């Protein structure tokens, strides 16, 4: 039942001790505020890391050759390892390793790209149809390179939307236009863009079919690198384990076929971003744990402050409590009177801190532009539950002085000055 007189007593006590109540509430509100802001930035760091790793397919793997540094099987160090079509074909058809997509780059050298006799400086790369998914690109208009292009050595090209803006801005569409690549005309059949949208270097590429690039620009059967997209497993640890096993198989095969010592780490380079992603995620988890620890310690400090204030309140009202007990007040009435004030101060301050911090994240979060921090935010249910836990802790903090008040001897209380 709502007891207006008790609430009047609470507000009267607060009015008499405005500064003390304000400082107590501030310590509680600041605890919630700090915890929510820290958790928000922890989530922002996780968002930033996810953004960094979504530029290419999350489970992609890149392989490129270097030079040998160790003599092996009568072969001198310093040899340049050269990947070839047969390496990709063997991996696709005979190695038996698990992957979803496989592709390659071939970088033609000493070529010029002209559009209507104007020189344009973009990188021409020969590749296959699977590269679109591995690079996590989407088609703005037209299409990407397909299997027919590869089989027919088609002279077609796919450009980025950045190239479209910079070179073909006066046209409604570049589809059907021709680029002159070292004397050969390549018809533009598609425009692509990056899913991440912030890597301009990857949007300065002109894709052409691998077979055409090798045939037209003296590539023979040479390729510049290999790239794969691996299947995602149920957990991150399983995905990492699968990718490491795949990496070992690829490295062992390439070392064997190219006469590279198993101890030579510079002849075959493999970049496995999922390993790096796991390290970053683990780091983020540790940082979020640290944020929780700091926030919880701050809240505990606020709760201790509430307990101390309630002890002071009990001390100040000892004579009043003795009179109430002399008039027949039950112990649980005294407990309830003290606890209600503790709960009121804790709940009001906690929800004030929650509203202010959530509002700040809502307004400022989407505009935050810091490396590895993107849109810091907090799940409202988590934050709300934290406030409820805080109120519960405030109740427990107030219970000890309340129980002490309820057990004061009447004669001692009446003698209190």
TrEMBL record:
Instruction: Tell me the keywords, alphabetical order.
Output: Cell membrane, Membrane, Transmembrane, Transmembrane helix
Where are its TM segments located? 21-41, 289-311, 332-360, 380-400
Which intervals hold domain ABC3 transporter permease C-terminal? Answer: 293-409
- The answer to whether UniProt assigns keyword Zinc to this entry is no
Locations listed in the record: Cell membrane
Protein's membrane topology: Multi-pass membrane protein
Which positions fall inside the MacB-like periplasmic core domain? 21-241
Give yes or no: UniProt keyword Flavoprotein: no
One short Pfam name that applies is: MacB_PCD
- Family designation: Belongs to the ABC-4 integral membrane protein family.
Q: By what name is this protein known?
A: ABC transporter permease
Q: Which organism is it from?
A: Croceivirga thetidis
According to the entry, what is the taxonomic lineage of the organism? Bacteria, Pseudomonadati, Bacteroidota, Flavobacteriia, Flavobacteriales
């Amino acid at each position: 039942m709502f007891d207006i007189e008790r609430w009047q007593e609470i507000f009267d006590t607060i009015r008499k001790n405005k500064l003390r109540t304000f400082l107590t509430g501030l310590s509680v509100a600041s605890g919630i505020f700090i915890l929510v802001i820290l958790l928000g930035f922890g989530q922002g760091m996780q968002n930033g890391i996810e953004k960094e790793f979504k530029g290419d397919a999350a489970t992609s793997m890149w392989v490129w050759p270097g030079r040998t540094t160790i003599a092996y099987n009568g072969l001198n160090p310093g040899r340049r390892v050269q990947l070839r079509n047969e390496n990709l074909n063997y991996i696709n058809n005979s190695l038996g390793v698990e992957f979803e997509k496989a592709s390659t780059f071939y970088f033609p050298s000493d070529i010029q790209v002209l559009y209507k006799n104007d020189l344009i400086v973009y990188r021409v790369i020969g590749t296959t149809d699977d590269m679109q998914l591995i690079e996590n690109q989407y088609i703005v208009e037209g299409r990407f390179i397909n299997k027919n292009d590869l089989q027919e050595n088609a002279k077609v090209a796919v450009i980025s939307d950045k190239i479209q803006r910079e070179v073909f801005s006066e046209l409604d569409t570049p589809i059907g236009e021709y680029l002159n690549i070292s004397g050969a005309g390549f018809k533009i059949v598609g425009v692509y863009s990056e899913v991440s949208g912030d890597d301009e270097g990857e949007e300065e590429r002109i894709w052409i079919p691998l077979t055409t690039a090798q045939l037209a620009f003296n590539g023979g059967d040479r390729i510049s690198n290999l790239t794969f997209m691996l299947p995602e497993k149920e957990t991150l640890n399983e995905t990492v384990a699968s990718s490491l096993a795949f990496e070992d198989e690829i490295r062992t095969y390439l070392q064997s076929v190219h006469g590279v010592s198993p101890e030579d780490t510079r002849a075959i380079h493999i970049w496995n971003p999922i390993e790096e992603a796991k390290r970053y995620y683990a780091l983020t988890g540790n940082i979020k744990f640290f944020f929780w620890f700091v926030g919880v310690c701050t809240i505990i400090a606020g709760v201790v402050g509430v307990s101390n204030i309630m002890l002071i309140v009990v001390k100040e009202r000892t004579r009043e409590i003795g009179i109430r007990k002399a008039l027949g007040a039950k112990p649980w009435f005294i407990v309830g009177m003290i606890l209600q004030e503790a709960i009121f101060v804790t709940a009001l301050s906690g929800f004030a801190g929650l509203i202010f911090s959530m509002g700040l994240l809502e307004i400022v979060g989407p505009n935050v532009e810091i490396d590895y921090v993107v849109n810091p935010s907090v799940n409202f249910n988590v934050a709300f539950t934290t406030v409820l836990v805080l109120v519960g802790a405030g109740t427990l903090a107030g219970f000890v002085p309340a129980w002490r008040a309820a057990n004061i001897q009447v004669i001692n209380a009446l003698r209190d000055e």
